[in-house]
């Protein structure tokens, strides 16, 4: 079916609302205010498919989105439009019921992604879908990530993503130039806006005293990857508790290259942001299981640690989910399968959201007292 594609204007929002309400159940459909806000604040991401006759031009489908700094969709990342965010969070893909099954959705998505791909500031697009529509989005070029933690309506959602090739090449070229620069210059350039990170390193963010909420003991700022050219959001404000250290005197391996002046070296941390669940992070990566490092450990020795099958290899290092930079912190699995625990926790949350009362899945019960620890001096802060 032939359609024209154009950005949806404010005059067409009432028609878009009709399509939204017809396409989604009441507990999932966006409100008129939401659609008007998206059109007003992110109008360049509100694309419509129109049919034209001799008497009228009619909106028969649309895609609307906002921007986010997060590479994974969460309730918060979808609720706020960040105009400088490198990822596009797609909220709705709607087609008039009378025009479904005619290729309108597939062609609209193809046009939408082609436009995003021409914008060098966009690194990728993300959306959440019900299971019956996953194949539609996969045919359009999206990759299934897995079950989403987002709760919106009664049914579970699945996250899908598409990344544009320039993101990796741009990141790698920036990475090599930054690695060769003096550490002080890296932080200066980041704060002058030459790179993407919105955060500041610990010393420039006012020191630890200003970053711990005195009323709650939690982080008073959003936490980001320490690399100046990476804007990956690791943890939201208020999600981590500050702890002075660890009873075992654990020492993180040195980072593979400087990120501040002076660069952090192997040794006791100034403290950690402690999180009880990996699902509390906005984005986080984990290494393979490794042995705890000795006091003289380095990043290279950590990388060469024996496989998880060896006795005592229970440590997982925390890394940036976008660029794999780390170690930024650590977690002791205590010999448990972390992947199975995450699945169990996801299943438990899904069961609660659906009102089934179902608890843990195949991974069994989730351990109590878990700690996922981010070193306070190895992240950036957006105050």
UniProtKB/TrEMBL annotation:
<keyword id="KW-0813">Transport</keyword>
<keyword id="KW-0653">Protein transport</keyword>
<dbReference type="InterPro" id="IPR016181">
    <property type="entry name" value="Acyl_CoA_acyltransferase"/>
</dbReference>
<dbReference type="InterPro" id="IPR007515">
    <property type="entry name" value="Mss4"/>
</dbReference>
<dbReference type="GO" id="GO:0008080">
    <property type="term" value="F:N-acetyltransferase activity"/>
</dbReference>
<keyword id="KW-0012">Acyltransferase</keyword>
<dbReference type="Pfam" id="PF13673">
    <property type="entry name" value="Acetyltransf_10"/>
</dbReference>
<dbReference type="InterPro" id="IPR011323">
    <property type="entry name" value="Mss4/transl-control_tumour"/>
</dbReference>
<protein>
    <submittedName>
        <fullName>Mss4-like protein</fullName>
    </submittedName>
</protein>
<dbReference type="GO" id="GO:0007264">
    <property type="term" value="P:small GTPase-mediated signal transduction"/>
</dbReference>
<dbReference type="GO" id="GO:0015031">
    <property type="term" value="P:protein transport"/>
</dbReference>
<dbReference type="InterPro" id="IPR051635">
    <property type="entry name" value="SNAT-like"/>
</dbReference>
<keyword id="KW-0808">Transferase</keyword>
<feature type="domain" description="N-acetyltransferase">
    <location>
        <begin position="3"/>
        <end position="165"/>
    </location>
</feature>
<dbReference type="InterPro" id="IPR011057">
    <property type="entry name" value="Mss4-like_sf"/>
</dbReference>
<dbReference type="InterPro" id="IPR000182">
    <property type="entry name" value="GNAT_dom"/>
</dbReference>
<keyword id="KW-0344">Guanine-nucleotide releasing factor</keyword>
<dbReference type="GO" id="GO:0005085">
    <property type="term" value="F:guanyl-nucleotide exchange factor activity"/>
</dbReference>
<dbReference type="Pfam" id="PF04421">
    <property type="entry name" value="Mss4"/>
</dbReference>
